[in-house]
Amino acid sequence: MGRAPCCDKANVKKGPWSPEEDSKLKEYIEKHGTGGNWIALPQKAGLKRCGKSCRLRWLNYLRPNIKHGEFSDEEDRIICNLFANIGSRWSIIAAQLPGRTDNDIKNYWNTKLKKKLMGLVPPISQRKIPLPFPNSSHEIPTSTTYNQPLLSSSSSLYRSFSSGLEHQMSNIILSSTYPNPTTGTTTTSLNFQTQMQEKYLVGGTSTTTTTNNPIQYNYIPVKDNNILVFGSDQGRSCSSSSDGSCNQISYVGGCRELKQEEQIMGFRHHHQGYNINMANFNGFEEQMMINYENHHNLWGEKSNGYFGESSLEKYCGLGDENDHFKQLISSSSNSNNPSIINSYDSNNNYGYGNIDENKTQDKVMYF
DNA sequence: AACCGATTCAACCGCAGTAAC
DNA sequence: TGTTACTGCGGTTGAATCGGT
């Protein structure tokens, strides 16, 4: 047997708190404290509320020194900095802003600050290379089947597939169908990797099956202006050198949508310093970035640990004073190290590549 | 004044880690 | 040691409010 039930869930009030309830809770806690037991508190305080609800009400609204109202520019900056470093870990962010609650900051971010930042970067359609297929517009397909892949053999998605990672890509590619001109039927038996290799593998792999039989590739549409990202940031697939830094990034990895704010903020990476990411937009090839060739003399040695410069960095002026954020993270039971990694080259494109620590000038691969 | 879509934000929900039994 | 509650967190919801027509 475990513990007894915390409360009679059928007999607790829900919804907005009345002033009477507020004063009951406030009075009780000011007099007796929480006693470290929120579950027992409502009954003792004469409230028909769940302990969880009481806790939330107290922490977010009733406790002393809660700051309501407009956020200052300084608070904006701190939130931006922290979000760029640690993401949506609101409780940690709130701990740096006396009087602000995690809920407050979360709401503020979602309703105002994010939008404010969104306006500072060009929309995807203005910052990427022209789409190669199926046309040069940037239509967002709602449900799409194409008779040819949207990827070329140089795309990172293709590389991932040719590495046998199609199973990790299932959230991009729903299925592939394979019409048979002889029988007139369409099958889905051929796995995607095989199809990709047969049709696109550079270097002469047989294409006899696919040359005359167009494959249909079905893609999941990507929401709004999000892009798909895959690679090391997803798959945690870096190899590490003895100092814990990441010296090689492979294509191995999962895939997910990259939210707009993440595009603004840059990705975070679990290793120090370096990060390589690859992205794809609605199945179309998308520019990838990281001009790693300078990672040592330009990015890797930045004292704030950031990699490259993001739009956020430009906006918020991230600087060396952010070192303590790293300590924050490392002390919060998370091995991820913060770094801002995405950036544009002089042509406003993203790039990527493997990092070779022995070289500062090496191949830079662009999509 | 009435309507309606957009925005705000307090509160709820569900999950994960931890603690109690 | 297994089961179940507790706690804290982040994501989401929806009623209230705002603002434009």
Automatic annotation (TrEMBL):
Residues 9-62, 63-113 form the Myb-like domain. It holds the Pfam family Myb_DNA-binding. Keywords: DNA-binding, Nucleus, Repeat, Transcription, Transcription regulation. It comes from the Eukaryota. One of its GO terms (molecular function) is DNA binding. Residues 9-62, 63-117 form the HTH myb-type domain. PROSITE patterns: HTH_MYB, MYB_LIKE. The keyword Nucleus applies. Its main location: nucleus. One of its GO terms (cellular component) is nucleus. It is found in: Nucleus. Coiled coil: none annotated. This is MYB transcription factor. The lineage of its organism: Eukaryota, Viridiplantae, Streptophyta, Embryophyta, Tracheophyta. The gene is TorMYB96.
